[in-house]
């Protein structure tokens, strides 16, 4: 009888744990890229925040039901001479809280795929949220264009947002600054995600002082991550592309960079969240900062 009582008590305890306590990984189980069907099926989740980062006028003309709007430029703004810097932590926390986001929220970032520049906005915002300590962040595959192409429900009603006091745990391992790159020179893979003509120095943006790249950098253009319709390539294709450039070692440190820090989060997010590379950082100062410093290596 004693053994039976012990067994029964153990069974009750196990059932309680299964039913009422969070499962391992439950707070981190949101896929990095979600489909329009998945989002439609999960619109009513109480912990869901749909974050529309398109222009305000586009948002007001129609958005996914319940979506809140924080235009992309609030997440990557001009700071001194650099075009796309992360807001200061206090400002970033206030902005995230104003959207009703807490560290435990599930956030789906909705952007536009209308232009090559707009395609990368979602990943930059998603990486910034993860930097601030929001674990469950995803990008809507195909953006708002795919949602409307499939005739899914949209609204012009601006939802009532209940602001939160956001207190996140900022992750310093997601971004790299110039000093960090110099200190780790030769010990990491530098991944240039610009288009080939920029990587080769045949073209440059006006905001970048010199054409060229970081010596030894490998090239994986951001455009290769997308299909012509604006969705992401299938995982197998992404893995093949990545492994052909950075190899199969998932523990090798990688820093992605571009001209101003706007494109490089796309491959950083795919490498880390989709393909399992564990040490990936983003250099948001980009070549705009790097090429203006004659004391750092350039070619």
Would you kindly provide a written description of the structure presented here, covering whatever features stand out?
It is a single chain. By secondary structure, this protein is of the alpha/beta class. The chain folds into two domains: 26-155, Rhodanese-like domain (Oxidized Rhodanese, domain 1), CATH 3.40.250.10; 175-290, Rhodanese-like domain (Oxidized Rhodanese, domain 1). It is 34% helix and 15% strand. A five-stranded parallel beta sheet has the order 1-8-7-2-4. Strands 10-14-13-11-12 form a five-stranded parallel beta sheet. Helix 6 crosses helix 11 (264-274).
Q: What structural keywords apply?
A:
299 residues, alpha/beta, Oxidized Rhodanese, domain 1, 2 domains, 5-stranded parallel beta sheet, 14 strands, 34% helix, 15% strand, disordered N terminus
